[in-house]
Design goal:
single chain, about 375 residues, alpha/beta, TIM Barrel, Lyase, Ornithine Decarboxylase, Chain A, domain 1, 2 domains, eight-stranded mixed beta sheet, eight-stranded parallel beta sheet, 11 helices, elongated, binds pyridoxal-5'-phosphate
Length: about 375
C-alpha cells in the first residue's frame, strides 16, 4: 500500500497507533491468486487479520476460510458464513472446539498426530481429515514446520490410522513457512504429497485434496516471487507429479498474501534518548501492540513522515511497554533528526499485526481504519474523536 497524500493527511490528524487498510487491495490479491492457479479453492487464514470487514469482503468474493479455534468459528458463523466454507486447519485443537465445530456443521479437519486423530474421531466421527506434512528448511521468515506437520513416513502411518478410526482421509496439507522467498519450496512439497497419495492408493485409500497452505510472501525489504510465478511452479508440479490420478482438488490457505500489502501501521515517536553509545527511539506501537513479528526479525520497510530524504543513522527502535522484550529492532536506520511526535509508517503491515496485539500495560493496540470509510465524514469523526 502506498503512502499517498491521503494516507499522510489522515495519519497526521488521527490518534496513533492504527492500521490503515484498503479493501480494494484485498480484492486484487484474491483475484490474482484465483487467476494464478486454475480451480484453486481459497481458504483465507482468518488468523492473519480477522477484522469482519475483511472477512465479509472475502466472503463476498467467494472465499472459504481456514479457522484455528472455536472463537474464529463463532465469529464467522455470526457473520453468516456457512460451515461448509470452513476448514479447521489448526493441528492442535481442544476437544471441546472439535465438538463445537462438528455440531455446527464443519466436517474438515487437519491433523499431524495419532492423538489428534483420536480426538477428531471421538468428537467429529466420520469427518474428513487431511494430514499435515512438515517441510524441511525453507527460505522463509517465519518457519512453521517444527511445531506443525510431521515427516512423510509418519504421515503415511496417520493416513492408515485415520481410516482405521472411521475418519475419511481426504488429502495432505503443508506450509512452506510464512513469507517464503523460494517458489520451488512448493515443488519440493508437492513431490512428497504425490508419494503419500500413491502410497494411500496402494492401501485402497483414494485421497485427492492437496492443501497448498500459506506462505506466499508480500514485499517488505527483500525481493519476492510473484503470486503468478509461484502459481506456475504449482501448476507445473501438479502436471508432473500427479499424472497417475485425476487432477487433484487444490485448496490454498493464504493469510499474509491476502492482507499484508493492504495495510500500513501508523505510529508515532514518543521518546528519543541516548544511553551510553546507543541512540534509542521509542514508538507508541511495539512488539505487544502490532509489531510482534519483529521478534523473529521480520523486517518492515519503515518511513518517517516528511523525513524520507534526510540523512540516516542507526538507532535501536522500541515500543512503549515496561518490558525489555519490547524492542522492535536492535539496529535500524532512521532519519538522524527523528524526534518527538514524528509519524512512523510500517509499510505492508496488514497481516499479523492487529490480531497479535495485546492490551499489555493497559496500552491500547492499533485499531483498523478502512480507506473506504475515509472520505470526508469519517475523516471528521476521526479527528474529533481522537485528537
Ligand atoms: N494455514 C495455516 C494452518 C497456518 O497456520 C497459517 C499461518 O500461520 C496460514 C495458513 C497462513 O499462512 P500465511 O500467512 O503465510 O499465508
Amino acid at each position: 500500500m502506498k503512502i499517498t497524500e491521503k494516507v499522510r493527511s489522515i495519519s497526521r490528524k488521527a490518534k496513533t497507533p492504527f492500521v490503515l487498510m484498503d479493501l480494494g487491495i484485498v480484492e486484487d490479491n484474491y483475484r490474482r491468486l484465483k487467476n494464478a492457479i486454475p480451480d484453486v479453492r481459497i481458504f483465507y487464514a482468518v488468523k492473519s487479520n480477522s477484522h469482519e470487514r475483511i472477512v465479509n469482503k472475502l466472503h463476498d468474493l467467494g472465499s472459504s476460510f481456514d479457522v484455528a479455534s472455536k472463537g474464529e468459528i463463532e465469529k464467522l458463523l455470526g457473520l453468516g458464513i456457512n460451515p461448509s466454507m470452513m476448514s479447521f486447519g489448526n493441528t492442535i485443537k481442544k476437544e471441546e472446539d472439535i465438538k463445537f465445530a462438528y455440531e455446527n456443521g464443519i466436517d474438515l479437519f487437519a491433523a499431524d498426530a495419532e492423538m489428534e486423530l483420536e480426538k477428531i474421531a471421538r468428537n467429529a466421527p466420520h469427518s474428513k481429515v487431511y494430514f499435515r506434512l512438515a517441510m524441511g528448511e525453507t527460505d522463509s521468515d517465519w518457519p512453521l514446520s517444527k511445531k506443525f506437520g510431521t515427516n512423510i513416513e509418519h504421515v503415511k502411518d496417520l493416513v492408515v490410522y485415520g481410516a482405521k478410526l472411521g475418519l475419511q482421509p481426504v488429502g495432505v496439507s503443508f506450509h512452506v513457512g510464512s513469507q517464503c522467498y523460494d517458489k520451488y519450496s512448493w515443488q519440493v512439497a508437492l513431490m512428497k504429497v504425490a508419494d503419500i497419495f500413491w502410497f494411500a492408493r496402494l492401501q485402497g485409500i483414494k485421497m485427492n485434496i492437496i492443501n497448498l497452505g500459506g506462505g506466499m510472501p508480500v514485499k517488505y525489504i527483500r525481493n519476492i516471487p510473484t503470486v503468478e510465478e509461484i502459481g506456475e511452479v504449482i501448476n507445473e508440479s501438479i502436471e508432473e507429479y500427479f499424472n497417475f490420478m485425476d487432477r487433484p482438488t487444490l485448496f490454498i490457505e493464504p493469510g499474509r498474501s491476502m492482507v499484508g500489502n493492504a495495510g500500513i501501521l501508523v505510529s508515532r515517536v514518543i521518546l528519543r534518548s541516548k544511553k551510553d553509545m546507543t541512540n534509542w527511539v521509542y514508538l507508541d506501537a511495539g512488539v505487544f501492540h502490532g509489531l510482534m513479528e519483529t521478534i523473529e526479525d521480520l523486517r518492515y520497510k519503515i518511513v518517517v513522515d516528511g523525513k524520507e530524504d534526510h540523512a540516516k543513522r542507526v538507532f535501536t527502535l522500541a515500543g512503549p511497554t515496561c518490558d525489555s522484550v519490547d524492542v522492535i529492532y536492535d539496529e535500524v536506520e532512521l532519519p538522524e533528526d527523528i524526534t518527538l511526535n514524528d509519524i512512523v509508517y510500517f509499510v505492508n503491515a496488514g497481516a499479523y499485526t492487529v490480531d497479535y496485539s495485546t492490551n499489555f500495560n493497559g496500552i491500547e493496540g492499533p485499531n483498523e481504519i478502512f480507506m473506504e470509510d475515509l472520505p470526508e465524514v469519517i475523516e471528521e469523526e476521526l479527528v474529533e474523536e481522537n485528537v
